[in-house]
Amino acid sequence: MSEAETTAMPMIQLGEHQVSRLILGSNPMLGYSYMGSLMAKFMVEYYTPENIQKLLHRCLDLGVNTWQTSADAKVDQAFDTLRDSGRDMHWVFLASGEHVENPKALADLVARKRPIAIVHHGGVSDRLYREGRLGEAYDFAERVQDMGILGGISAHNPAVIRHAEESGWDLDLYMTCFYRITRTPAEEAEVVGGEVPLWGKFVPGDPARMCEVVRQVKRPCLGFKIMAGGRLGDRPESVEGAFKFAFENIKPSDGVVVGMFPRFADEPEQNAVLTRWFGSLGG
Amino acid sequence: MERDRREFLKQVGLGAGVVAMGAVGRAAGAGPKPMPTIRLGRHTVSRLVVGSNPILGYSHAGALMSRVMTDYFTHERIVALIRRCLDVGINTWQTSASDKVDKALAAVRTGGRDIQWILLASRAHFALKPLKEIIKRNQPIAIVHHGGVSDSLWRAGKIEQAHDFVKRVQDLGVLGGLSAHNPAVIRHAEDKGWNADLYMTCFYRVTRNGNELRAEMGMKEVPLGEHYMPGDPARMCEVVRHVKRPCLGFKILAAGRRCNRPRDVEGAFKFALTHIKRTDGVIVGMFPRFRDQAAENAAHTRRFGS
After folding, report:
1. How close B241 comes to chain A (CA, Å)?
2. How many CB atoms lie within 10 A of CB B190?
3. Is residue A235 within 8 angstroms of chain B, CB to CB?
4. Could you tell me the domains of chain B?
5. Is residue A74 included in any domain, yes or no?
6. Could you give the number of structural domains in chain A?
7. Fewer beta carbons within 10 Å, N or C terminal of chain A?
């Protein structure tokens, strides 16, 4: 048994649910790579139903009990297979498109897959904020809560989270991106200062800016993209640094969502060990 | 010479084959043209030269992508790529020194075909003895001083060391060249009358350090990752057009950053081949895991570089 399997995974509370501070994300398996379309294609190719199952079981073995995903047929199938096997994970659903616009589609999905929480998509939240329509995201979260499920808002722009909190919106959680990758070209030029490199959306000052807001809000936050869409994954020390920074700069009641691609390394174990090291509440 | 003639005939014949493939042929849009060529010394070189970064695992897109590339490029797949390049009219391969390259060159040549080789030399081959050995072993048509090292020497005020290396190569009867990511290095060599045979000119100055990004590019926050500045290709091409010697432009696809959509790739080829001289070519690394990139890139070169 490895260290990650023998030491208790630190947990946080989301409503009535005990959730591991490390939550499995889904971008790699759904082909949302931030390292170009070629890498995305590799990820999709790797993530067969069998490899998804292996990852889910490995995460459960290591104490990672929650999975955050968008809606996708792959996810549906994976939950069915996992639950048929007699095991289960909590599901945090990141909702956009049809599931935000069509209450029936949302109700169907809830009945079928039983998420513990539904969160309004961060890219859409940022756009609504820019358009002065963020109230629509809150309306959605309230609708979710009316169904007896935890409702939250995700954002890449810290101002969205601050706005929700200052408006006194009664949300159950936030998802908080460590990098504001939704900046417009003009906003990118302003923060970078002139010419913006290709693939230059991940700005190093962003994690500190988001974490400042995360510490101010009372509600639990799930930080995501803590490894900058893979940019901090090149060396073990940069991965370790990313986990250390995240856990030292969020509240004890917060967690992190991390996408994993265990093609060449046991990333679930590595990430679980780092969460135990840096995210244990007593340590 | 016989080998050159055979390869040329294959190119001409192959043009029709590429067009017959459909999408690539339609993309070329101009019938069975032969691959355009340039001269490097006495050698006739296809304007599209196949590079080697994907083969050697230098993805410039993170360690994970490098690993994926290394994993893919077995010896058999390297040889298959080189043969495919020959099939579509690409007659020259530019690489760093590597056992993988040695073995692939040997396999291609033993198989009765040949590809001209340009060695990008770095520190391991700067001294005379290893330089002579690799020339004897692999018969390069040209040896070029490594661009990253050139840029470092330039920054340190020691660029003459690169000049000395170029002369050493030429003294051995091989074309000698200088590679750089920083256009100022190429401009310096030309203005000082270095008698280099060719330049390799990176379309992106990826060797800027943090201080240079702040001081020269006015950056306030330096984004994570390597820095491919969108204005760099125009800056390098201005120098490429200014110098008399043939230039081989490289990283025209920004190490994959211009590859997300087919029209991005097409745009990058169009820009490159319409902003360099007619006597210049481009070097493009290929990773044919999901697409026949050799044929696609050859079609773009025929379309924009004829």
Report:
1. 24
2. 17
3. yes
4. 2-24+35-305 (3.20.20.100)
5. yes
6. 1
7. N
A13 is a domain residue: no
Q: Is A40 on the interface with B (CB under 8 A)?
A: no
Burial annotation B32-57 (CB, 10 A radius, 16+ → b, else e): bbbbbbbebeebebbbbbbbbbbbbb
User: pLDDT for B134-175, tens place per residue?
Assistant: 999 999 999 999 999 999 999 999 999 999 999 999 999 999
CA-CA distance, A242 to A244, in Å (whole number)?
5
Q: β-strands B116-121, A17-20: how paired?
A: unpaired
Reported as a pLDDT band with limits 50, 70 and 90, residue B17 is very low
Q: Is A84 on the interface with B (CB under 8 A)?
A: no
A147/B contact by beta carbon, under 8 A = no
Q: Which residues of A touch B293 (CB under 8 A)?
A: none
Tell me, yes or no, whether A127 lies in a domain: yes
pTM of the model: 0.90
Structure tokens at B33: 């043209």
Task: Provide the b/e sequence for A261-274 (b: ≥16 CB within 10 Å).
Answer: bbbeeebbbbbbbb
Helix (H, G, I), strand (E, B) or coil at B281: strand
CB B116 within 8 A of CB B39: no
